[in-house]
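== Sequence, structure tokens ==
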Amino acid sequence: MNVIAWILQIILALLFLGAGGTKLTQSKDKLRPMMGWVDDYSDRGVKLIAGLEVLGAIGLILPHVLGIAEAVVPLAATGLALTMVGAIMTHIRLGEMDRLAVPIITLALTLFVAIERFSQLS
């Protein structure tokens, strides 16, 4: 299970680093065609979500690699899972049922990593 968790951590970290990095570096006008939900949030709100995604991505990998504060890994996964709950709720509110697959799968994967890494903490 450890190998599976590591593979998922790397995939999720790349996914959230890419998604968060895009939101951090692009204006709402550039994000709008891909992410219509940005209109429902302030610029600051979009950047906050992006920053949390980037920090979560770093938190999935760095503490484990450095061997310090390894409890951060499952906490980062849990935080990213909560981000996906928010994404799911936003897509439902906007009637974008066709966009639910990715956040639901991502939620399941982040929860798997969180549970697996919490179980290894003792």
Q: What stands out?
A: The helical segments are 2-25, 28-31, 43-66, 72-93, 101-119. Residues 2-19+51-119 form one domain.
